[in-house]
Protein: HicB-like antitoxin of toxin-antitoxin system domain-containing protein
Organism: Candidatus Coatesbacteria bacterium RBG_13_66_14
Amino acid sequence: MKVQLTAVFQKVPEGYIAFVEELPGANTQGATLEEARENLLDAVRLLLECYRDEAEKQLGDAEVIREPLQLRA
């Protein structure tokens, strides 16, 4: 499954700041563009993991159905 998001990079005096337009909270920085790209991928992975963990906590012992969700543009 592929989901395409939009990464935005802005040049600043210290290097680059980066965020994902469609995913609030996914933001980072880097001294170089490549470092900012790598850091943004890590930020997205950590954010999704955090969201998943929080959802599991909120569900507790509730009986739920989990299934893959595929997005198509």
Observations:
- The mean pLDDT is 94.
- The helical segments are 33-59.
